[in-house]
Amino acid sequence: MNLLLLHARYQFLETIRVPIAVIGTVGFPALFMLLFVVSNPAVGGQPAAATLAAGQMSLFAVISASMFNLGAGVAEDRAKPWHPHLRTLPVGPAAQLGGRLLNAQLLALISLLPVTLTAMLFTRAHASPGELAAALLALLLAGLPFAFPGLATGYSLPLKAVIPVVQLLLLPMAFAGGLFLPPMLFPEWLDAVSQALPTRAVRDLVVGALTDTAPGAIAPLVAAGWTLVLGALAVVAYRRDEGRRFR
């Protein structure tokens, strides 16, 4: 546990030494909130719609922080001579990967602050303390399935390829998962596709926690299934990279 916390600490220090990376990660979701929610009185001025939009943008912030931080961070470290040396030490991958995941969760928490402040100051979003606590827990759990594709791209691709690939994965999944537009506005075919996506599943769980409503039986099963699939993908990518670099 001490090594895991040590890795997380140095991962965090390394991240904040490049302030523009942190600003980009935490700033874009709040910018989207301003552009799509605050600027639209039909959403930002209505308590129910504003609360829903705030939950969806908060989830986008968590997913974005997880995928970009882990994908770019791993790819950048793989290009440095220090990283292969670390992987030869008799520590095992648990401390390094655990430290990376903890650092990503911390950045995800930080990314929630601008979105929350924007929602509080410029919209009529409303939630009780209990609903906020439940939504925060749901958001932290929701980030886990999306940490795995971040790790998989980082261990599979060079840094120059990781960022566009993550963008190509994240933005379509975010839209089709209902993070930019409520799924009740989707056409029937898109709603059917959406319900099979991990973004839609965790979106329903987060919105359910934020509004104190039941998310339905499908969302937890889809979220759990995608977590297993994406986790397996990350393990395969890690072992493939290890076999390629240390054979």
From TrEMBL:
GO terms for cellular component: ATP-binding cassette (ABC) transporter complex. Keywords: Antibiotic resistance, Membrane, Transmembrane, Transmembrane helix. Residues 8-207 form the ABC-2 type transporter transmembrane domain. GO terms for molecular function: ABC-type transporter activity. Signal peptide: none annotated. GO terms for biological process: response to antibiotic. It is found in: Membrane. It is a multi-pass membrane protein. The chain crosses the membrane at residues 20-38, 50-70, 106-126, 132-154, 161-181, 217-238. Pfam families: ABC2_membrane. This is ABC-2 type transport system permease protein. It comes from Haloactinomyces albus.
